[in-house]
Amino acid sequence: MELNYNSIADLLKAASEEGCRLSSLVLIQQAEQLGISEEDVYEKMRENYKVMAACIQPGCDPDLRSTSGLTGGDAAKMKQAADNGKNLTGSLLGGALYRALAISELNAAMGRIVAAPTAGSCGIVPAAVLTMQQEKGVSERECVMSLFTASAVGMVIANNASLAGAQGGCQAECGSAAAMAAAAIVELAGGTSEMIDSAIAISLKNILGLVCDPVAGLVEIPCIKRNASGVAGAFVAAELALAGIKSAIPADEVIWTMKKIGDMMPAALKETAEGGLAATPTGKRLHKQVFGQNQN
Length: 296
Hints:
single chain
């Protein structure tokens, strides 16, 4: 079986023609490509999902701090608010927010995470899928399978645009992760191929042009909070798509647009820590706090 990872539309068309979910088609293709059984491929992905799930508890430790000392402890605050019913948006979004923060903060503290698709955007896809399992009662197997759909979306973006902040800005990292998460959410909710396409498109459209401007050059500020924003955007896109709201621009064209925007973005806004929030007075002060007064 040959799948074309150059087009979202082609992938979804192939799944529709086979009468199955995209995740099932990707699983079959990967097994054939790797020369191993489908169950072995599934178990490899299940191990990734287990690592994602194992990030939540340590990531919610109120005493967790990054090596730089700049971040940590926010996931614990968000989880407390959600657990106590004091957040504004209910347990689903509250749960997604604290999980995204937990995984991102654990990454900053040198914990073990799954790059999904990158370390800087590692909290978005896991937070979306883990929250769907917790809040909507979907099975672990369904959650693991949805990661194949998310991965296929990431492959298309990688082949047509970029997953790297240094190449395309944060739209390429948190934007790609949000698109992957939105696709997974829609599949877990029983949405159609057309809904998946719209969810991918909407999530990416809402994050186009986002720059990569890490304070002190570290994947902490504003990266961690952008993971929370990214998973929120994924749920927004999925909600709209599942309600039957279509994206006027198809996903493949949005991905192409993201590539063009990334190409036009100045180098100062692509992970160099020379512009954006990194260049603010506070950003510069934090840089000196971490690296010393002699650092520029």
